[in-house]
Amino acid sequence: MSLSKFLVRYGRTTLHFGPGTADSLRSWLSSFKRVYVVTSRNAAKVSGALGDVLELLNHGGIKYEIFDGVLANPTASIVDRVAENAWRFGAEAMVAIGGGSVIDTAKIASVIVECGGKASEYLKRYRDVCGALKIAAVNLTHGTGSEVNRYAVATIEETKEKLSIASEYIYPSIGVDDPRYTTTLPKNQTIYTALDAFYHALEASTGRFTTPFAWTLGETAIKLIVKWLPIAVRMPGNLEARYWLLYASAIAGMAVDNSRTHLIHAVEHVLSGLEPRLAHGAGLGAIGPSAIELLYSIVPERLHGLLKYLDPDLEPTQEHSAKAATTVKKFQEEVGFTETLLDYGFTPDMASRVSEMALTSTRYLLDLAPIDVGKDLIEKIYLRSLGRT
After folding, report:
1. Which of 11, 118, 265, 313 is 20 to 30 Å apart from 131, CA to CA?
2. This model's pTM is above 0.70
């Protein structure tokens, strides 16, 4: 089929979607004389996105510097470093080329350049966001939806707290979703990032303050992920699969922007804060089925509307809670995700610490769940995710 290019105007972002849309940056970049480029070590180069962006910068005679040291689960200290470098360079705007970690780093750094302070002060809500540099987000994964929303996440190393900021100022001015850049994703990242979008859609559709808008986006996103993720895993270069996974990720990001995540993300943020080797999507996949069994017993009709694409025999009743969890776990295993928290060094004796951290550092997400969440419930989900009851 023909994979069309189109525009989506959402929040403060104009998203350019489809093959070849990086050229849309040309006009936006022409407004600036000095631009700071933020990437990870390899993905921007391997995907071809960095070369495309640098060609536009060079052609426009725009001065730039590059920071290529962003890691998965970015830390506050890396964000501070990016902000200081950009400020010293006199950057008027930032271009983030990467997945959620890169885009989130650029978002928080852009606030610091404009408003001063340190990343931890914004993550801990000690400072208010007063503004931000303009950001272009060239997205390289079909996971976070950070190219179209107002959230950013980073970890404070000293306390191992993975926290988020939210502000109208950090919507990217322009987003680029070109599926060609995602065909070079390694298999594990293909799976992790798609699972991230899956759980964005699921939680945005089931939270305490969800909306019909979020339901519609969430159901469409999950339907697309269920269809196209197995194809992308088997055929990494299949552009149609990448196109629809990227679209699913974007609309799941919009759903989250409206209705937030809750229980699963709250617990995962604690886990990947404690162990940075745990990719965000892997953490979600590890704990998701256990949490879904609980959530299905609370909002079975809502979850049935999403998970029926995995198993048409599911019924919207509490009695099908265990079957819903098994259905999601089976889907994850079929696409190649078999990791557990045990693989990352998590043990049963950490259950109390995980629950205590969730009830403090990510309480703001737990309060959005469709059920009151306490220590026992978090420990139960954690232990079941280890294969323990």
Report:
1. 265
2. yes
